[in-house]
Amino acid sequence: MSSPIKIDIWSDIACPWCYIGKRHLEAGIAALGEDAPEVEIEYHSFELSPDTPLDFEGSTTEYLSKAKGLPLDRVEQMLEHVTGVAAQAGLEYHFETVAHTKTLKGHELLHLAKAHGAQLEMKERLLKAYFTEGGRVNRIDELVGWADELGIDADEAREALESGRYADDVQADIAQARAYGIQGVPFFVFEGKYGVSGAQPAEVFANVLTQVAGEQDGAAA
């Protein structure tokens, strides 16, 4: 029996392609059916836009227009495109209500959730909150509410976030990404040796998993 295939994923909560990439990976695993290898997924923190203010007063369109130096209509076209791609992956994006903000506190909550064995569920919850519900992933009250939803003690979550208990872990993830040369996310690392950049189609993930599983079986033979 082969050990699970480890998949390390560098990702940001405020990254639309990260949510799409998550769905594509899940679809790639599902497409293998009974032949799908067992996997162990761990998410790592990445801050896509470190200069993002805590509370940007304005729309995502306005923020991206300023940040990228693009006209508003061009940004709107880009967001329409990614919304369409997300819809094909079964996701509902509402950029008109997205609260653009720094994501570091959200990443701290992901580390707390990992300690409770609920990181994957928390990642899904934060992405949905950000892209679909207009949630503010920098505000402790909202983060504590999502922790409570997943059965993590609210008082513990509040203490961890207010004290910055996991702030160093977040920065360690970001430093590791830098050491790997990761400049954009999502970035998937399979068994510490195969890197896949971006929200690739499901079949790409299925092919990588099949290859890695075959190598494991060959080594075990």
Automatic annotation (TrEMBL):
GO molecular function: oxidoreductase activity
Domain DSBA-like thioredoxin: 7-209
Transmembrane segments: none
Annotated protein name in UniProt: DsbA family oxidoreductase
Organism this protein belongs to: Agromyces bracchium
Organism lineage string: Bacteria, Bacillati, Actinomycetota, Actinomycetes, Micrococcales
